Amino acid sequence: MEMNGFFLIAGPCVIESEKLCMEVAEKLCTLTSKYRMPLIFKASYRKENRTRVDSFTGIGDHKGLEILQTIQHYFDIRVTTDVHTPDEALMAAEYGIDIIQIPAFLCRQTSLLKAAAQTGRTINVKKGQFLAPEQMQFVVEKLLQFGATMDKIILTERGTQFGYTDLIFDVRSIPKMKSLKVPVVLDVTHSLQSPNQTCGVTGGDPSMISSLAAAGVACGIDGIFVETHPRPHDALSDGSNMLPLDKMESLIRRIIAFREAYVKFEKEIQQPT
C-alpha cells in the first residue's frame, strides 16, 4: 500500500561499525519495501553533544561518512546524518549525504544554517527542546534567505524540555509547524528521553514509542524518525531510548493503520455535506 508520501527516517543513533549499519539498513530496506514506505537511513558519524568526557563519539569522521556512502550505494537509498559546524556541512555534502540534519541544540546557529543551505542539499532541522514551535518560522526564513528552497526544508519535532530531567511531546507543535508549509517529522525516540541523569547518561522509555507515533500520525505528521538497534542494551549511544530492531515491523504496521485512518478521515471531512 502506498503511504501518500509518508516516509521513515531510521537507523542507529551513531555509526559503531560498518557491520552494524549494514545489518540495520538491510532489515529496514526489507520492511520498507514490504510495506512500500520510503526510507531514509540515518546514523550519526559523530556524536558531538555528549554529557561525559568518556562517552563514545564515533569511529572517525571520514570512516563514518564512507560507511554512509556504502549504505547509500549498496541499498540505493537516501542517507542522512547530523552536522555541527559549517565545515562539517560542507564535508557531508562532499560525501554525497542526501539530507543534512541540524541538531536541536544548534537549530538557531545562523552560520550553520547558512552553510547547510548553501550546499543545495535537503536540510532537516530539529526543533530545539527549548524552543516554541512558532519560533521555527525564523529558522525557515534563515534557510530561505541563504538559498534553500521550500521543497528542501524539513522540520522535526523531538520533544520539549519538561523540568530538568524529562521531555514531553506537545502535540500542538505539529500543526503549528505544518502551518509553515514544509514537511514535519516526529522523532519518537528522542521525544521520550530523560536527560540530565545523575549517572551522566541520558535515559528514556521506548515502551512509549508506539503511543507517540500514533499521536503524531493523528496530528498529520509527514514522516517519522526512529532510532533503532538490534541490541539496544549493547549500543554505544542512546541505547535506553532506541527501539529494538526486531520490533520495527510491528511499529511500521501500526503507523500504516493509523495513517490510513487519518487519510480517510481527512478526505471525508473535506467532502461537501
Structural class, by secondary structure, is alpha/beta
How much of the polypeptide forms β-strand, as a percent range?
15-25%
CATH class group = Alpha Beta
Find the CATH topology: TIM Barrel
Please summarize the sheet with the most strands.
8 strands, parallel, barrel
**What gross morphology would you assign?**
globular
Task: Lay out the secondary structure.
Blueprint: E1 7-11, H1 18-34, E2 39-42, H2 61-75, E3 78-82, H3 86-94, E4 99-102, H4 110-118, E5 122-126, H5 136-145, E6 153-157, E7 160-161, E8 167-168, H6 173-178, E9 184-187, E10 193-194, E11 203-204, H7 209-218, E12 223-229, E13 243-244, H8 248-270
Parallel strand pairs: 1-2, 1-12, 2-3, 3-4, 4-5, 5-6, 6-9, 9-12, 12-13
Antiparallel strand pairs: 7-8, 10-11
Helix pairs in contact: 1-2, 3-4, 4-5, 7-8
What attributes characterize this protein structure?
TIM Barrel; 273 residues; 13 strands; two-stranded antiparallel sheet; eight-stranded parallel β-barrel; single chain
